[in-house]
Amino acid sequence: MSQFWSPLVSTLSPYVPGEQPKIAKLIKLNTNENPYGPSPRAITAMQAQLGDSLRLYPNAESSTVRQAVAAMHGVSEANVFVGNGSDEVLAHAFAALLKHPRPLYFPDISYSFYPVYCGLFDIAFKQVPLDEGFGIRLADYDEGAGAIIFPNPNAPTGRALPLAEIEALLQARSDVPVIVDEAYVDFGAESAIPLVVRYPNLLVVQTLSKSRSLAGLRVGFAVGDVALIEALTRVKDSFNSYPLDRIAQAGAVAALEDREWFEQTRQRIIASREALVVRMQALGFEVLPSAANFVFARHPQHDAAQLAAKLRERAILVRHFRSPRIDQFLRITIGDEAQCEALLQALAALT
Ligand code: PMP
């Protein structure tokens, strides 16, 4: 703290990201990265940028990336916004769309970045409890809300909502902006993007970090009504920012266009998840139904913090959250087949 700080800064409690360990040998199942590499076509496209063209500024509108997203989803470029990871897209969305006299509603167990953005942009919020089974109950997102955001599938629970329930919310709350954060949608949930043409209050945010294995490149996007995209663009342009550099623009387009690599790798992750769930259940774990590239699980006889520590001693990193109600759970990213096997061997020895 310093006398030179703006008063707001002393009230902020910044986001604490999952550990990025220095030791390469660790089996890293703590931050939901994709165990398979990005599309080889994306790597080639990025390598082609490593030359004289880096003298030049990138396209400020990221037009080719927006066109690729638009083509995939049957919308127009004007319906698409891109940013430096979906975290940046969300930051612009919080600033542009979510501050109203009534509070922003989001689930009480959810992406822990949301309260951080609320602090940063001075947004009043209400955290709405999950139901008994750790599901989001959209009926609770009532007239008290000035805006709504939730991940689908939710993080860190992995539970997904059916599209019909999301559509019912959009109809019931057509007076407020609703953001669906679909970071993990490709691993088993239904995207709400087809609804944007009918619901001008809906913004859907996705990322290339998970199902396209480009967490290190930092590319995310939002799809919504032109007026919502314009609001985000105004905020972005106020920062005079080029969200995507030339390498990221080239890599993102190629990754989006390589449907085959996308399908193969995501199906492999889904198959590994299903196999992992069955074997963890056989070890006595209670595993929440997951539509994501991670599972959220607890063991009735073993303390989660201790299990995480013992796994770490065996060079396996998983995520443990200290928050009440979920402090007995572990969130475990789906690794490749060998990593899943190593995890199961370690869990079998520890339980
Ligand atoms: N939303 C959710 C729910 C997430 O879990 C994450 C990843 N931590 C993000 C958004 C942000 O991902 P990225 O910035 O890599 O796109």
TrEMBL record:
Residues with PTM N6-(pyridoxal phosphate)lysine: 210
InterPro entries, per database record: Aminotrans_II_pyridoxalP_BS, Aminotransferase_I/II_large, HisP_aminotrans, PyrdxlP-dep_Trfase, PyrdxlP-dep_Trfase_major, PyrdxlP-dep_Trfase_small
Signal sequence extent: none
EC number: 2.6.1.9
Pathway assignment: Amino-acid biosynthesis; L-histidine biosynthesis; L-histidine from 5-phospho-alpha-D-ribose 1-diphosphate: step 7/9
The reaction(s) this protein catalyses: L-histidinol phosphate + 2-oxoglutarate = 3-(imidazol-4-yl)-2-oxopropyl phosphate + L-glutamate
Domain Aminotransferase class I/classII large: 25-347
Cofactors (names): pyridoxal 5'-phosphate
CDD domains: AAT_like
Single Gene Ontology MF annotation: histidinol-phosphate transaminase activity
UniProt keywords, alphabetically: Amino-acid biosynthesis, Aminotransferase, Histidine biosynthesis, Pyridoxal phosphate, Transferase
Highest taxon of source: Bacteria
Pfam families: Aminotran_1_2
Family, similarity comment: Belongs to the class-II pyridoxal-phosphate-dependent aminotransferase family. Histidinol-phosphate aminotransferase subfamily.
Subunit structure: Homodimer.
Entry-linked PANTHER family: HISTIDINOL-PHOSPHATE AMINOTRANSFERASE, HISTIDINOL-PHOSPHATE AMINOTRANSFERASE-RELATED
Protein name as annotated: Histidinol-phosphate aminotransferase
Organism annotation: Uliginosibacterium silvisoli
